[in-house]
Design a protein that fits this description.
Length: 290
């Protein structure tokens, strides 16, 4: 087995990975709190979808690849397959989205949360090892089964706790604390899974195909910016719609819509033809005999 490094750039990678996991979890939990306040199923589903992109795409997937920038095999080049990399993103978002939809609709119950946590944890594991499958080296990657099982347990527990937070916490301080715990769990799952791997070189592999790790920074940065902008615009649009509607899709009417103008257009159109209502009564004229 050849030597591998997980912290090529020192403490920068784990700190950056943790911050991404924290921010993604924080904004995702804020969205789930808004989902609980939604009055219609469609609005709730929309907020849960935004939360899925924030947690699955930001807290999990971006954290994974920011940490992978610190992975290096000194005796071999490290390359990434863009198709498998994007496939892992899809797995992460779908897994988190399904879990949030399960716990976000219907009555809150522990069996529902545990079932959704197992499903979401399996999806997160699929994301991690799909991303690892997309990593190419001049050799073969092997995994320690014990540590793989440990990473699976951490993933399921972390996802179950995250889903429970998603339907429970409210307020800036509780959400911040929950996001900090979620970020620790996500990073712990990732580095446990990375500790499970080892690399054996193969002299028959002359060329390693794919993108360099640092070359992935540009597309990941662009994708991150597009995701953040898209999530922010979706959240702002949803908040605007909720502000100007009564929660059920019906536009709110102004407080003085009826009082300041008693003769509304609707009333005027309902008046009989040939008679135009007057905004104020006209006093009768009096005739004086001279």
């Amino acid at each position: 087995m050849t030597e591998v490094h997980h912290f090529t750039y020192g403490i920068f990678n784990p700190i950056a990975a943790y911050l991404l996991a924290f921010l993604g979890s924080f904004f995702g939990l804020l969205c789930t709190a808004r989902a609980r306040d939604a009055r219609t199923r469609s609005r709730r589903t929309r907020w849960l979808g935004i939360a899925a992109f924030s947690i699955g795409g930001g807290a999990i997937w971006l954290m994974h690849f920011s940490a992978m920038l610190g992975f290096d095999v000194p005796a071999s080049p490290v390359r990434f397959d863009i198709v498998m990399t994007l496939a892992s993103l899809v797995f992460a978002v779908i897994a988190v989205g399904l879990g949030l939809l399960i716990v976000g609709h219907g009555a809150r119950s522990l069996p529902r949360v545990i079932g959704a946590g197992v499903l979401t944890g399996g999806g997160v594991l699929t994301m991690h090892y799909t991303g690892m499958q997309g990593m190419h080296v001049a050799g073969h990657v092997h995994y320690n089964l014990t540590l793989v099982l440990a990473s699976a347990i951490i993933a399921v527990v972390a996802c179950t706790v995250a889903l429970w937070f998603a339907i429970s916490v409210r307020g800036w301080l509780p959400v911040s604390g929950a996001a900090a715990i979620m970020a620790i769990a996500v990073c712990g799952m990732h580095y446990t899974g990375m500790a499970a791997m080892s690399v054996s070189l193969d002299g028959a592999i002359a060329t390693v195909h794919g993108f360099r790790p640092l070359a992935m920074i540009v597309p990941i940065t662009v994708l991150t910016a597009a995701t953040i902008v898209g999530v922010a615009l979706s959240a702002l649009q949803a908040m605007t719609e909720e502000e100007f509607t009564d929660g059920a899709g019906t536009p709110k009417r102004g407080m003085h819509a009826e009082t300041t103008n008693p003769w509304s257009l609707k009333q005027a159109s309902a008046a009989p033809a040939g008679r135009r209502p007057s905004p104020r009564p006209v006093p009768a004229r009096s005739t004086t005999n001279l």
